[in-house]
Amino acid sequence: MTLVAEVIVDVAAYPVDRPFDYLVPDDMTTLIECGSRVKVPFGPRNVLGFVVLLKESTDIPLEKIKPVSQLLDIEPVLTNEMLELAKWLKHETICYEIDALQVMLPSALRAKYEKMVTLQADIELLPQSLKEIFGNSSKVNYKEFEKNNLLHELKHALNEKLVVIENVVKQKGNVKEVRKVQICNDLNKLLEIQNHISNRAKKQKQLVEWMQSHVGETIEPNTIYEEANTSSQVLQAVISLGAATFIHEEVYRDPFTKKVEKKDFLDLTDEQSTALEKIVLSMKQKQSETFLLHGITGSGKTEVYLQAISQCLNDGKEAIVLVPEISLTPQMTERFRSRFGELVAVMHSGLSVGEKYDEWRKVHEGKVKVVVGARSAVFAPFENVGIIILDEEHESTYKQEDSPRYHARDVAIWRSKFHHCPVILGSATPSLESFARAKKNVYTLLTLRERALKQSLPTVQVVDMREELQKGNRSMFSRSLMESIEVRLQKKEQIVLFLNRRGYSSFVLCRDCGTVLQCENCDISLTYHRSSEKCKCHYCGYEISVPKSCPQCESDHIRFFGTGTQKVEEELSKLFPEARVLRMDVDTTKVKGAHEQILQAFGDGQADILLGTQMIAKGLDYPNITLVGVLSADTSLHLPDFRSAEKTFQLLTQVSGRAGRHEKAGEVVIQTYTPEHYAIELSKSQEYGPFYEREMLMRHQAGYPPYYYLALIQVSHEDVMMAAEYAGKTVEWLRSKLSFNVSIIGPTASGISRLQNRYRYQCLIKYKIEPDLIPTLMQLIKLYRSDWIKKGIILSVDLDPTMI
DNA sequence: AGCACGCCGACT
DNA sequence: GTCGGCGTGCTC
């Protein structure tokens, strides 16, 4: 009986986005499973692939079918659930199946392809230049020949059949092993060895004697050096006498540097208990119900999660907790680790490839029961999921911006249906989509109206910066904010200042000719960074040092415009020279662990003012913070995006929530040039309801979600004309295919019309019900993508885009 | 995608 | 007569 495997190969291209049949060699038949990774010959090369189905026959003619060349996993890396989920993702987000499969695994398991040149004949037949490269080895990386400019010689040798080129498939990451010392488990042998050591070798004698009290143990060399007061040379010598051996032991890399204390549950308020009961009931009844937990800042949503998870673990099931990347602070993860200890794995982008792999393995091997992580943790390979939680449900980081463009919320709900378990979407400011669904009873709404410790919400004051300007205050601090800061400094309370920008100045301008420094690759002005004296592009990373004269007119009247965190810091130190300021932005948190360090320092009271960007809006929970200042609420309001009002309201509410979370009352000062805008006006009372009503009205009028669905098509090319032409062609084609209830807007140049040297055009599709949309878009890709790629056109499709 | 195959023009 | 350009088509 023959066994045939259907394999999805690691080639992301439309024509090969389907399973290929391979024969399973006899020695693999009992080991291979669906979800195993395999190495297969594909055309002239070797690639990695995933087994998606095993069957006993095939329609492929015998002369065409090839065997699997290697099985990479004894245990499959993907479950049947994941294989199903990948098919769904492929359809739902219009991506390649291989991309959908790869996104579920840590990057360490991805393939690394290397071209190797192997010697086939006597080395003496090669020209001198090639002989040198080979040296003593018979296999050399192709890159070496490229580096040394020997491609012509190589080609010649290839024609003469002296060498062959082969593609080697390797795995990116590996299991970490440590070298340990295994002490001989025979006491008598140790005694005998000790007796044979010459009296001159005192240290060796001592070590063997020490080993006699550790018979059969495995110990790290460093521990031995310390405890037995000895050195590596002595240990080497003793090992050569046979008293111990070196062994290699598999370990998990440990991303946690500090241990946490075990903590007990907190008492719940009535509201919290009611919410918890409903969730637990749903869990017990194995319902795939989606809850929207709408609780104001400080209402104790996390405590509800923790107790629900505890119930879930009691039932012998696993829990997945998703948090936005930015709020994956130690404060948050510690809270989970202090409740569930070693049962928690943490996954976020701050971990190294190896650390991510190990956290994934803990889940895969069933060593942990709870995962706390960013977006991709929604794919945690648990097999018996009891609850899935998305904290700060409205956050845009839950949507992946490149293929597969999935939303973690949708994946969570899919998995909840598979496992018959509830999903909890938690937020103080839910996305309009989710709240609308809750109102329509698609989701079950749970509300927490009061703060857990009964503290009142902070008082919010909106300051009109236009008035300040009229009264002659040209600084970036209003008088009101300055007074408040003064008061806190005197009372030794802490202040958080929030600025929605980084860098020193937004742009660099020549005062004589008005030239603004621009990025070479993108249509974006460069941002001045004071610490490095450089001008950087925040989109592609391009940077130049600050020019002494204008590149256009050579005038030396160069000025820096706009406000960034560095400039605020400078002004702060002028206004309040005694205040200790900590700055937290992308620049000061580049180094691994810097994020934690800054927060820790602020929490310990080492500074009076924390000044930062987006990243301080979440998760900060220190009792001594009593003042929050928002320097300019407008920055996010004027973005060309239909969600800008929602984003602004969410941000203001989140930031305000940082103040007065404990005994001391909090105060918030919001500075703005548009105090009359409803997103700002309504954030004063921090009431979600009125904002929701108002924003829904706007969405209805403008035809945006949740009233309509959106799809965004983007066409880009290095040449403007090409990009525009093909964007036009695309829109024309779509208009001819889609029905009249679908409106197609565009093509228009994208917000940032040139990015990384490509001009971008986009069109927006708005629809209510259009069953043909996905098939039509797939047809568009099928008909045109591979053809256009040869012309340099990149066509991308984003269903339910978060930003437009 | 990435590679071989094949056809055509420029050179030893 | 051979080398290398890139258009075409296939990958179990």
From TrEMBL:
GO terms for biological process: DNA recombination; DNA replication initiation; DNA replication, synthesis of primer; double-strand break repair. InterPro entries: DEAD/DEAH_box_helicase_dom (IPR011545), Helicase_ATP-bd (IPR014001), Helicase_C-like (IPR001650), P-loop_NTPase (IPR027417), PriA (IPR005259), PriA_3primeBD (IPR041222), PriA_3primeBD_sf (IPR042115), PriA_C (IPR041236). It is an enzyme of class 5 (isomerase). Its cofactor is Zn(2+). Zn(2+) 1 binds at residues 510, 513, 550, 553. It catalyses: ATP + H2O = ADP + phosphate + H(+); Couples ATP hydrolysis with the unwinding of duplex DNA by translocating in the 3'-5' direction. Its EC number is 5.6.2.4. Residues 282-448 form the Helicase ATP-binding domain. This is Replication restart protein PriA. The lineage of its organism: Bacteria, Bacillati, Bacillota, Bacilli, Bacillales.
